[in-house]
Design goal:
single chain, 218 residues, alpha/beta, 8-stranded parallel beta sheet, 9 helices, binds pyridoxal-5'-phosphate
Length: 218
């Protein structure tokens, strides 16, 4: 199977309103170009340096998504062009994004990353931390919250994965009805990867981040 046919097949499975982010980390620019040539425009990377190197070699209308953990000192390298940051998980990081956004005269779209998995190692906010962060971000004019992002536990247990995805959907709904009720742009639930995207869609995902199923194993 070619990358192009993988993309076309996967897109056929996505209901209307669910967006595909092609996760191209570790893959060469030629693979991204192949996906681009069959119409894919949204690509996800998890490392700032790799994202920058690829962006400089590829068409300018690609929408780049930063999906991995982001360190504050690297924010300045992506703010000039990034389309959506999926991994906001601290106030310090958000402050730095806002500061660089002001400098670049841009408003940066951000997702709040929640810790929904059982594992200790996964990054992400608790509800309590998110509420504090939202409260403290009120004066940040160059941040636009678009929704939430989460990663399920790495397990075969489908019921557990479904419960974690449903929890993220519930968090989104709660924020939308309260803290974000005046934010018409709060519309995104980023969840689901190669192994669990069909389940994520059943649980309310609006944006799936799929890598190995499109580009092969890493
Ligand atoms: C690598 C990665 C993905 C894609 O994973 P696949 O299993 O290859 O589809 C999605 N989201 C994040 C945050 C990742 O780091």
């Amino acid at each position: 199977m070619s990358i192009a046919s993988n993309i076309i097949e996967l897109k056929k499975q996505l209901p209307e309103g669910v967006q595909l982010i092609a996760v191209s980390k570790t893959k060469p620019v030629s693979d991204i170009q192949e996906a681009y040539d069959c119409g894919q425009r949204d690509f996800g990377e998890n490392k700032v340096q790799e994202l920058n190197e690829k962006a400089s070699q590829l068409p300018k209308d690609i929408r780049w998504h930063l999906i991995g953990h982001l360190q504050s000192n690297k924010v300045k390298y992506i703010v000039p062009f990034v389309h959506l940051i999926h991994s906001v998980d601290s106030l310090g990081l958000l402050e730095e994004i806002n500061k660089q956004a002001v400098k670049n005269n841009r408003v940066i779209d951000c997702l709040l990353q929640f810790h929904i998995a059982e594992e200790e190692s996964k990054f992400g906010l608790t509800m309590e931390a998110a509420l504090a962060l939202i409260e403290q971000s009120k004066s940040m004019q160059n941040i636009r919250f678009r929704g939430v992002m989460g990663m399920a536990t790495f397990t075969e247990n489908q019921q557990q994965i479904a419960a974690e995805f449903k929890n993220l959907k519930k968090i989104f709904t709660q924020l939308l009805s309260e803290q974000m009720k005046n934010n018409a742009s709060f519309d995104t639930i980023s969840m689901g990867m190669s192994d669990d995207y069909p389940l994520a869609i059943e649980c309310g995902s609006t944006m799936v981040r799929v890598g190995s199923k499109l580009f092969g194993g890493r």
